[in-house]
Amino acid sequence: MSELIEKLRNSPSRRNPPYRPLARIDDAEREALKRKIGGVENYNGQAMRELVQAAPDNLELRKAMVSSIMSAEFAGIDAFSRKVVEWQEWDVPESLILAMARQTWDEVRHAQLSKGVLESYGGVVGEYPDTLAGGQGGGGGQAQAAAPAPANGGQANGGRAQGQAVAQAALGEAFMRNPIASLSMTNVSLEGGALTLFKGTSELGRKIGDHLMEHCYDYNWADEVTHVAIGDYFVKKLTEGDPQKERFALMAHARHEMMRGNLTPAQAEELKAFFAEEMERAGEALVSEQPAAGGYR
Predict the structure, then answer these.
(1) Three-state DSSP class for 143?
(2) What's the rounded Cα separation, in Å, for the pair 203 and 213?
(3) How far apart are CA 90 and CA 83, in angstroms?
(4) What average pLDDT does the segment 50-72 reach?
(5) How do residues 97-127 score in pLDDT, each as one tens digit?
(6) 0.85 exceeded by the pTM?
């Protein structure tokens, strides 16, 4: 299994048609998006739902909305299937591996449903760019130092800044390669957000008389309820009786919510202060105790 894991870890995410990340589209495609949906800034689930509700007869807007959602489903297939392979060498329950396999199939079904809805509007996969372009690239997931030490900060300040950058990079790597963090960020935070996304999309379908949209995204919503429950269950199981791991799980969840912009300014500031205070302690807990195979202890 180790050879397969190593090969997978260093293999880029692939899809036919190939992934085309939104962040990398050229000026011509940005102009095209502006003509179709009003601009790149509208290419997200919330904004697209509002546009579709305002102009329900505009099939181009529906194609864009479904494409933005479908992109995340393909990324989910990639991410969860990698976990099924990599986590088999980690110190996690076998039932967790089976749960990741089940979620991989759920994401396949979600992608198929979105593809069917998209095709009902005359759209095709790859017509719009990807909001999430696969789980990893070749060697993806390797954290880099946030920034070099300042040139004129003095040896003490410069050394401290460099140390913080290295700690941030190591901490980021620990988050990406740790099942507690993965479950907290993906199943609890991200999939929790998907509950709102799918519920809103299904309700939109009902409001505009698009019964296929209503039906398909209601199915997706039901799966996300299970995915969040899986996250809650296994986070508790992996942290049971260990306050340090419980704190880590909460930190991972909060960190992801902050990255997604789901916190008030006051909450974000509180978390920034928390992370600053905990950096040295967290770095030691999350990095120095990581086993070579990438386990969580």
Answers:
(1) coil
(2) 9
(3) 10
(4) 96
(5) 999 999 999 999 999 999 999 999 999 999 9
(6) no
- DSSP reduced 3-state for 297: coil
- Cβ distance 210 to 184 under 8 Å? no
Closest to 80 measured CA to CA, from 191, 163, 164, 160: 191
Q: What share of the chain is helix, strand, coil (3-state, %, to 5)?
A: 75, 0, 25
Q: Which two tokens stand for residue 136?
A: 């990893």
Task: Average the pLDDT over each of 29-38, 46-55, 248-257 and give the range with the smallest value.
Answer: 248-257
Query: By the 8 A CB rule, do 140 and 21 touch?
Result: no
Cα–Cα dist 210/57, whole Å: 10
Amino acid making up residue 264 = T
Helix, strand or coil, per DSSP, at residue 130: strand
Contacts made by residues 265-268, CB under 8 angstroms, sequence distance 24+:
none
Name the 3-class secondary structure at 21: strand
Quick one: tokens of 283?
A: 């770095």
> In Å, how far from its chain's centre is CA 271?
20
